[in-house]
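QUALITY CONTROL LOG
STEP: pairwise intake check
CHECKER ROLE: data steward
CRITERIA: each record must contain a sequence immediately followed by its structure tokens, with no blank fields

ENTRY 1 OF 2
RESULT FIELD BELOW
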Amino acid sequence: MLRTYSRFGKCPQLLSRLCAFLAIIGGLSGCATRIAGLKHDPEFTYQRLHTDKLAVAGVVVAKGALDLPRESRRAELLSRQISTHRPDLKQQPTSYLLNTIGVTSYKKLLDEYRQFGFLSKARLTQLATSKDNARFIFFARIEKDDIENELDRPADETARSKDRGIIARTTRGLEVSFRIYDLQTLRSVWSGSIKKYDYNRKEYAHQLTAEGKPLDETKLKFPSAPTTDTVLGFVFRGFVENLPKKGAR
């Protein structure tokens, strides 16, 4: 899909990047990641999350077949975000869950979550009865993974602005849903979804060719999109920053 924006038009991707940068350097609360459709069991508190172990069970894609190496790599990406930004939490490696229930059962677990976005009571019971599994298990499911091409033109289209150039931008947008289960109660205690964007850009310095003719915009080459894992990094950071914190009401 091709969209066009003026240089000063609405651009949520730029805002997303600005917020991420400000969060890194100063923890700007006004840019905190929004959780859509948040459902948070009041009994899922910082004290319980801090006291008991958690584990990232898996990260799956709603559309398409299960790809265990890819899902394992992305589970590790989420696990690293938790370790980096919430070192106060006790985390059990995803590999422990896989080894406990076996590869076949683990694949069935991920495929069930991939298809439905939730687990059956029978599947949760199987996990709960497995020896020494973490109490809280985290799932993520990529609901949407969209790529768009955009042209960013100067707002002033007069002859004097013709040397200000055109920016070709390729944006990847992800929508990822999350769910946390409590294996002691066999209930979902936290769920919601996050949207994040990132982009690559290529600037064409002049809107006129060397011969003074307008550029043929249909022939402009767009840059490649950021990788899915790159945008997932922003999504996972937003998820982690919304986990229950000490002293939060």
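ENTRY 2 OF 2
RESULT FIELD BELOW
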Amino acid sequence: MAPPFRHPELIVPTDEFPANERSAIFLAASQAMLLDVFAYSIAAAVALIDYCEMGLGAPDEWREIAARDVAMNAYHFSRALKFIDKLNAPSVRGRYDKEAVDSAIRITNARIPDAEAIRNAVGHVADNVRSMDVLLSHAVDGNHALGRLDGRTFSVTKDGRRYVLVIDASLAETVRNAARMVMGAFMDAGIIRHPVPA
């Protein structure tokens, strides 16, 4: 049996759902709550890049660190949405606004279409340069980008393709809005709710 999810302000009332669906509902609701964590991390990394660009003496490496963190969190955000989309629990199928979830997925995929490829390139840098053959298999026109931030455009190469992610306030706003859509759909349906004081 899945335990009730405890968040400082939220609860997943698993005992209100059929026993055979509780784990699936619990996991989807947990993923929905994680969307907010990933969106916040992306916004924080965008703010760090903003700070670095103010000319106050921040090390240039901070921009690269922030860009890699965005790449990882964008991947986790996209993956969480995929898990939520696969929720197979007939008891809640008609209770939550599936169109809101689908809309969140669409806007995220439009803004971050290559999240998995970018994450894989960032997460496997050493693997991608373990031999000249492997290195060249990832290169584009003989050039290999291990993760480069040029202005606000983060680029990597993987499997002979270049992938880019523009890291700016609009990215942070997109994921924040998508997270709110999903959380709203789940909260309106009672899948996630504020706990009742004892």
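INTAKE CHECK: passed for both entries
DESCRIPTIVE NOTE, ENTRY 2: The radius of gyration is 19 Å.
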